[in-house]
Amino acid sequence: MSAETARLLVAFDTLPPAEKDVFVRELFRKLPPVDSGPLEDEVLARAGDDLAAKLEREENDTHAR
Fold first, then answer.
1. What is the Cα–Cα distance from 40 to 59, expressed in whole angstroms?
2. pTM across the whole model
């Protein structure tokens, strides 16, 4: 990883959650399309579970403050 990429990632980590969402949406909008082929149900289910757990942790962290 280049030093510039590492700096971008550090800067991204300092953004508030709403700004991270905006950044990621814009980043994905700029990326070229990728055809990764069909995803297996198990992969999708695991990704969904991981996302739900992450969102729950973020929500709990917000309420704990």
1. 29
2. 0.48
